[in-house]
Design brief:
Number of domains: 2
CATH class of the largest domain: Alpha Beta
Strand content: 5-15%
Largest sheet: 5 strands, parallel
Order of helices and strands: HHEEHHEHEHEHEHEHEHEEEHH
CATH topology of the largest domain: Rossmann fold
Number of helices: 12
Distance between the termini: 51 Å
Strand order of the largest sheet: 9-8-7-10-11
Structural class: alpha/beta
């Protein structure tokens, strides 16, 4: 362990509430590492920015205006874990705002194969770009990147976490909340709703990140439906308890709680995180899949979501149901990530005033 490893280990011992202060500059969001960084004001700002971006982009003059907002910036997309939607939506978001992008999508084509350290790679990328967007299979890697650049270098550039291990995926949570807010626009908003999350909640970073964001809404109830082996971890449950958010753990069958849900958030089994071979396949998940016959138990006003990729946890026949919002949810990722980048670079007022 080198000196930086030791210093970061000490930083990690701090409570989350203290650590996230490292990712602000002058009281504003600088890095996007953890969902806990977001408050209701920021969430509502991103909601408004996203809606403006969608409207502006419908015309050629609006699109040209957007492409000039950050045309002087460069971004590095450092994705060493497989990704389709997150990578493409971030790349599209950057191009929408005029940001030029570079990418590394495989560590085997970088100097890591020559023994270059993670920290040295990061400092190299920060020398060439104004923003680093990253995905990594290891937990806390994005946090390490932001901590290093903010506290141990002279080249401070924002870092956005595009997925870190099984721990956090904050920009997915942002687009999920945007989808929920937009879906419930005529039903009083997201406040007062019951959110049902099912699947691999223990290792599903999307469900974890979305759970953390629920602290920003009033009278929310969460239901976690999963086999016991895949139930939500104690750290998230403790977080909900500290913020007085009621939750229920359902371990028998998804159908038992379907009628209660205003939103159903389905996730796949995260077998890439198996500790041993075929660990996930030994768990019976058949009673936690959403099938066409189940839809009669679902509220007519409910919203069905999925962060993708999908396997067999939602039947494709449900795609044509008007309650299925997951394809719209996927497209929202491009818009909300563009809004987040504009917010981080403090150019969002230009968008809102266009």
């Amino acid at each position: 362990m080198n000196i930086l490893d030791e210093e970061f280990a000490e930083f990690q011992k701090l409570p989350t509430e203290e650590r996230i202060g490292c990712f602000e500059k002058n009281g504003r969001l600088f890095d996007m590492i953890r969902s806990q960084q977001l408050n209701r004001e920021i969430i509502d700002d991103i909601y408004r920015i996203t809606n403006h971006l969608r409207r502006i982009s419908k015309s050629k003059p609006g699109s040209v205006f957007m492409q000039n907002i950050l045309c002087h910036k460069r971004a590095m997309l450092w994705f060493t874990q497989p990704s389709s939607r997150t990578f493409l939506s971030f790349e599209s978001a950057c191009h929408m705002l005029g940001i030029k992008t570079s990418e590394i999508r495989d560590a085997r084509v970088s100097s890591e194969v020559k023994g270059e350290s993670y920290d040295d790679s990061l400092r190299t990328f920060s020398s060439y770009t104004d923003l680093i967007i990253m995905r990594h299979k290891g937990e806390n890697i994005a946090e390490r990147a932001a901590w290093l650049l903010n506290t141990r270098t002279n080249r401070q550039v924002p870092v956005i976490n595009g997925g870190s291990g099984s721990d956090q995926h904050p920009t997915q949570a942002i687009l999920d909340v945007y989808t929920l807010q937009r879906s419930f626009e005529k039903q009083g908003g997201l406040d007062g709703k019951t959110i049902l999350m099912c699947g691999d909640l223990k290792r599903g970073r999307t469900a974890r990140s979305l759970s953390y964001l629920m602290k920003n809404f009033e009278d929310i109830k969460i239901i976690y439906a999963a086999p016991q082996a895949f139930q939500m971890k104690e750290d998230v449950c403790s977080f909900l308890e500290r913020h007085n958010i009621p939750y229920l753990l359902e371990t028998e069958a998804l159908e038992n709680v379907l009628p209660e849900a205003d939103a159903i958030y389905v996730t796949r089994i995260q077998d890439e995180h198996d500790a041993i071979a075929d660990e996930s396949s030994r768990i019976d998940t058949s009673r936690f899949r959403l099938r066409p016959l189940d839809m009669s138990k679902v509220k007519s006003t409910a919203v069905i979501m999925h962060p993708f990729p999908r396997r067999d946890e939602i039947d494709v026949a449900i795609d044509s149901d008007p309650r299925a919002m997951y394809w719209r949810q996927e497209r929202n990722g491009m818009w909300t990530r563009a809004a987040l980048i504009a917010y981080i670079f403090d150019v969002h007022d230009e968008i809102l005033n266009y």
